[in-house]
Every structure is written in C-alpha cells, then in structure tokens.
Amino acid sequence: MAAGGANNSSSEINVVIIGETGTGKSTFINYLTNLFYNGSLTNLKVAIPTHYLKANMSSIMPQHHEACLEDGTGSKTTKCTKYTFTVEQVHFNFFDTPGINDTGGYLSDNENVDRIFECIQTLQHLTALVLVLNGTQARLTVNIRNVLERFRDRIPDVIYRNIIVILTNCASHTVNFGSVKLLNHAPVFHMQNSAFSSDARKWTSQTREILQRDWNISMQTMNDFIKTLITLKPISTESLSAMNDDRNAIRSILHESRLMIMELQHIEDELTALEQASNIYSANVEKYSSINGQPTKSIQASK
C-alpha cells in the first residue's frame, strides 16, 4: 500500500459503507483488500466471494455474510461485517452493510437501515460514511433517495461533513450519474469493477490489456481514497446517540399526545351521545304531551 501518512502511534479509522444492492459495496472491499495486501490482476485477493471467485483471505479476514451470489437483485450482505486493515499501527475498519432496495421490499429496507444505525452507534467515533452508487445510472433511484432522506433525518449534520461518494462501474469520463444534491461538496471517486465481474477463463489478450489498465486506475483511486480518509477528522457518535435519544423522547411525547387526543375524542363522543339522547328525550316528551292534548304545566312556588 502506498497511501502513506498514517503515522499515529495507535488509532482507528472507522468507515461505514452504504448503498443499494448490486452497486459494488462488496467489490469495493475486495479492491481495498488488494490495495492493502498487494494483490494484482493475476493474483487477486478475494475477501468476499463473487459469482466467479472464491474467497482466499479467510486466514486474515472475518467470515463473510454473503448470500444470493447467483442473483444480482437480492442483498448479498445480510448483516454488518467489519473488515480491518492495519498499517503502521493504524487500524482501517470498514463496515460492509446490507444493501438497500433489494427484493425484500420496503420492510427489508427498514430492517437494513436499522442495522446500519445500530452499527454506527456501536462506534465511539466515525471517520467517514461512504455512499456507493452505480455510476452508470442517470440519477438516484427512488429507494436510495428515500433512504438518504431518512439518514438526513436521523444523522447529525456534522457527520455529513465526512461523507464520501464512490461511483462504480465507471471512470471519470464515462460516468452517467448526475450531481448528488443531498451531498453537496462530498468527495467523489470513480471505480471500475471489471476485475471481479467477469470470468478470467474467458479473457482474451486484448481483454486482459483493457482490464489491466482499469485495474491500475482503480488501484490509484483506492490509494487516493485512503489518503482522503487520513485527512478527515473523526466525529464522535455521541451526537448521534443524543439525537436518537431526542427522537425517542419526541416519539414518547407524541405517543402520549395521541393517547390524550384519543381520550379527549372519547369524552367528546360521549358528550355528543348524551346531548343527542337528551334531544331525543325532549322531543319524545313534547310529542307525548301533544298527543294527550295536555299542555305542559309549570310549577310555581306557593305564595
């Protein structure tokens, strides 16, 4: 690894990776693995298995939680998994998270978002929140936009200062993705996933030449990405916990308010029912008096 600059005697850099299913979050981890462990196109280091490649870093990497390797529409990462790379006593911790917008639907997305927040809250500090997007798409999908809005509601603005965007399946000159309006001024990196997305047994000499060029560019991008991480100031997650406590307090107040409104509505309904019953009773008395031809007598006090 050539990033350099990690001269602290002991420190942790915590990075949480989020994104839609199939955008390349796990492949991003694989590229980082090759950066830190000097992998090459002919000697790929695979931390997370792909459709074409088996994991070969089990002795130094955690057990992966990948599923649906044959299906690109289902979330391959089923829980948050920590991958640590250590350089000069600096621990780079990357947390791969379940994908958003998979075949599980809205409820599955909610569960995955909750897992991501639980993951962040276990950390004392967060160095960066990395958003991985498919660079061949023209714009944010509805699902990921909704998720980002939910993140905006639940994450303090201070954490958004340290967000980084990774656009996959593209180079800087081939990207088809428009500006991310929710993430103004966020650093953007472009990564080509080709080395892990095709069958090496079918590569021709020309294909290898193209892939090698893409590989060199991607490795430089990973190196620049690490350099950017080193410059970021870690942010305490206490603000996230405080914000979450405030949210829970507000929810409690809203819940109590709803109960109070329901009780008031119940009382109002009872008063309305009593008023209606009184009106019916009065109408019946008047009707009965009219039928018997007897005027209503008033009671006067005796002199």
From TrEMBL:
PROSITE patterns: SIGMA54_INTERACT_1. CDD domains: Ras_like_GTPase. Signal peptide: none annotated. It comes from the Eukaryota. InterPro entries: P-loop_NTPase, Sigma_54_int_dom_ATP-bd_1. PANTHER family: AIG1-TYPE G DOMAIN-CONTAINING PROTEIN (PTHR32046:SF12), G DOMAIN-CONTAINING PROTEIN (PTHR32046). This is G domain-containing protein. It comes from Rotaria sordida.
